[in-house]
């Protein structure tokens, strides 16, 4: 899986729109450090998201709220060093864009300048339109995020499926159209009915990437730790686990402990 830098044509915001037009589904996965990002990029994932889910899976917080802008920049700059092909998108964390558009722009600029990322993602629709416009006006590509927006978890009160009721579904559709109109290059739809997600994807020219939003959208995103079975306690219906790394890594580490205790490691060939 080694990569020669030159063989790769970089994924850009433009190539994602082309993929939608050609009917090629977009793959997106999170990564939070250099080694993870190298593996994900070499596996030809189109978009790497440095998600604020780092707050959960890397730092052990219950929600995405505590992670800071400095911590996101640290994760993003580590990821960037491992990537040759994918488009790298970074979440602007809670508290770094909600108070006013100038703050939003300052946060986006810090992410782009200090990490070398290619785009930012923000949660919300019409409520944050001025922030989105200001960031876009500065030439920074923006990915939207609607549906279940984990930074608002205390407003929702639960992580259940969003937009099942007519009124919320209508607002979501309006927000999606607005995000496209302002110039967002793509939108993530999280945990909403598949029928609604398909309708939104069909009404837009920009790609819609789903997580728990069915198969009628233009691409899928998952969290690295969930796909590989490192997280055990998170079992939503939408999640397909491709490995059980929690168990496999645990077995390997137990074997190492046993080998040390048995004085089997290191053996004659494993020393100088
Ligand atoms: O932070 C994250 O990982 C995300 C994805 C779940 C879309 O926003």
From TrEMBL:
Gene Ontology terms: cellular component: cytoplasm
Pathway: Cofactor biosynthesis; (R)-pantothenate biosynthesis; (R)-pantoate from 3-methyl-2-oxobutanoate: step 1/2
EC top class, as a word: transferase
Cell compartments where the protein resides: Cytoplasm
Cofactor(s) recorded in Swiss-Prot or TrEMBL: Mg(2+)
Cofactor, free-text remark: Binds 1 Mg(2+) ion per subunit.
Active site: 190
Catalysed reaction equations from the record: (6R)-5,10-methylene-5,6,7,8-tetrahydrofolate + 3-methyl-2-oxobutanoate + H2O = 2-dehydropantoate + (6S)-5,6,7,8-tetrahydrofolate
Protein family: Belongs to the PanB family.
Functional description taken from the UniProt entry: Catalyzes the reversible reaction in which hydroxymethyl group from 5,10-methylenetetrahydrofolate is transferred onto alpha-ketoisovalerate to form ketopantoate.
Protein name as catalogued: 3-methyl-2-oxobutanoate hydroxymethyltransferase
Organism of provenance: Cerina litoralis
């Amino acid at each position: 899986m080694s990569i020669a830098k030159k063989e790769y044509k970089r994924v850009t915001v433009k190539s994602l729109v082309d993929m939608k037009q050609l009917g090629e589904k977009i793959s997106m996965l999170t990564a939070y450090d250099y080694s993870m990002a190298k593996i994900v990029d070499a596996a030809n994932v189109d978009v790497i998201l440095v998600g604020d889910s780092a707050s959960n899976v890397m730092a052990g917080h219950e929600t995405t709220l505590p992670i800071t802008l400095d911590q996101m920049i640290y994760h993003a700059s580590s990821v960037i060093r491992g990537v040759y092909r994918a488009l790298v998108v970074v979440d602007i964390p809670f508290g770094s864009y909600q108070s006013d558009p100038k703050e939003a722009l300052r946060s986006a600029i810090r992410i782009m300048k200090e990490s070398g990322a290619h785009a930012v993602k923000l949660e919300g629709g019409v409520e944050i339109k001025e922030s989105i416009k200001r960031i876009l006006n500065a030439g920074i590509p923006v990915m939207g995020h609607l549906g279940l927006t984990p930074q608002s978890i205390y407003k929702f009160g639960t992580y259940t499926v969003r937009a099942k009721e007519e009124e919320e579904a209508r607002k979501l559709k309006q927000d999606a159209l607005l995000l496209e109109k302002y110039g967002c290059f793509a939108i993530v739809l999280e945990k909403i009915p598949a029928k609604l997600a398909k309708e939104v994807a069909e009404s837009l020219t920009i790609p819609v990437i789903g997580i728990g939003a069915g198969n009628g959208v233009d691409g899928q995103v998952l969290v690295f730790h969930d796909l590989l079975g490192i997280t055990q306690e998170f079992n939503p219906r939408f999640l397909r686990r491709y490995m059980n790394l929690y168990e496999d890594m645990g077995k390997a580490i137990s074997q190492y402990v046993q080998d040390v205790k048995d004085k089997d490691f290191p053996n004659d060939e494993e020393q100088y």
